[in-house]
What does this fold into?
Amino acid sequence: MNTKINFAGIEMKNPVTVASGTFGYGREYSEFFDLSKLGAVITKGTSLKPRAGNRPSRVYETTGGMLNSIGLQNPGVEYFATYDLPFLKKFDTKIIVNACGSSIEEYVELCKVLNTLDIDGVELNLSCPNVKAGCLAFGTTYNGVKEVTSEVRKVLSKPLIVKLTPNVTDITETAKAAQDGGADAISLINTLLAMKIDINTRKPVLANNTGGLSGPAIKPVAVRMVYQAAKSIDIPVMGLGGIVNGEDAIEFMLAGATTISIGCGNFIDPYTAIKTIEEIENYMKKYKISDIKEIIGKVEMN
It folds into this structure.
């Protein structure tokens, strides 16, 4: 039974990764299980310089998921390279750094640094605010996605995965933009823009007023978008959004995802990723599937 996957040129022992922003840099979870069992670790969003993030309250549990407006708080790439990367290198797993920035120039400078590090790939987070364009998100237009992807591609020789926002009218347009800009793969979906109001105070529960919704509540939207994106491009797709078990993972792969990533599930149960790997293997045994690649994109439409 073969669970190995080649994703954007990255050889993974299985298709299960952990989503950016939900796993930190792996230290806390390494106390529960051997990170070497994962296909890859995708780090917390990392920027060129340290970021303080948004003021609290920044997290709120909601029906079937959670809202967050952390604001990409992180210690910066220099700290990551000095302290976090050496820790992750102790494990036999692939390391993908989620890269965030506030301008094209910042993305480019960050990726120049990342290109010198001993990592396996970069996940370009295009949901960060574009300060020079009036705080619009890079990831909401074809031109925006293609421009930043192509500029980063010029300085990055490592595998490039572009993480797309679902807050668009047509996900296939931004998926095509990532491909046209030179990405090796895409990952989707990032969080859905959402809000929760406290009816007693009459104020939003998040200090930032709105935040990103993640968790099982968004899974049907994520599956639909993964299916549409995978059908529209020739590069592989990483699927994420509400995956908490092997059944969810298989669903995403049938929709067209080559790999999957677990986010909020890590908060519910730190062993979620390990259990998902085991459940994928059990599914393969049940249906006598010899190679995991046999199920990718094999949904049979009505």
